[in-house]
Please model this.
Amino acid sequence: MILAFVLLFTASGLQASKAASCLSQQQIREAIDKKQIKHLAAIKAAVRKVVRGDVVRADVCNGNSGLVYELTILSRTGTVTRAIVDARTGSVLSKGF
Model:
């Protein structure tokens, strides 16, 4: 019981800290309008060359060297992959899970 509470508390804490470092939808739109980051469609096209599957979640967050797209990709076989993409250039920085 205590372990379940600790896991739930830790997971909710990670989500809260991630949410604090990620942009809101309004902030994303503003960054796209100012050409600070690429639109999600361009990012998906770049990632499709490296990882097969459908993007099921996309967040724009502060990375070590600027804004990044954090993508969750689901393949047709059910494999889940996480890709980190430079939001300005569209370069895939890392992939895996």
Notes: The first helix runs from residue 2 to 21. Helices lie at 2-21, 25-33, 40-48.
